[in-house]
Specification:
The chain is α+β, with helices and mostly antiparallel strands. It has three helices and five strands, in the order H-H-H-E-E-E-E-E. A five-stranded antiparallel sheet has the order 4-3-2-1-5, covered by helices on one side. The protein is elongated, with a radius of gyration of 31 Å.
Length: 132
């Protein structure tokens, strides 16, 4: 006997005890399950690419310092600046470059940070470009 010839012609008996299950519900029983919870997130995190920090030459550092002095001397004018900076990754080696355009609230020279009007803080040493 091949191809279920012994049962293929039998009449299907519907259960009196259980209601008919739709095809979608029936298929859901056989859907794959996630045996390792969190595995997809770990794979995604490992695949995420980070950048290395660019080391600026003295000339570029001087240009940034002059722009920061200009911003600081005109802080009461609510100057909006665009800053490109490096942010170290909290989980992996490396980080990413971000760009933010915002009004500078103040420059903290002691802690070497720029504080923006939205209270975001940027380390001055991580700035690679600033546009006024």
């Amino acid at each position: 006997m091949n191809n279920y010839e012994d049962i293929i012609s039998r009449v299907y008996k519907k259960s009196k005890k259980y209601p008919y299950m739709s095809n979608n519900d029936r298929a859901a029983q056989f859907a794959p399950f996630q045996a390792l919870s969190g595995y997809a997130e770990v794979v995604k995190e490992i695949a995420r690419v980070t950048d290395e920090k660019i080391i600026l030459d003295e000339n570029k550092k001087e240009i940034i310092n002059r722009k920061l002095l200009e911003v600081d001397s005109n802080i009461e004018k609510n100057i909006k600046v665009t800053i490109v900076f490096y942010e170290k990754d909290k989980l992996k080696k490396g980080g990413e470059y971000k760009t933010v355009s915002e009004i500078v609230k103040r420059i903290d020279k002691i802690n070497k940070k720029i504080i923006l009007i939205n209270n975001e803080e940027i380390d001055i040493d991580n700035i690679i470009d600033i546009k006024i």
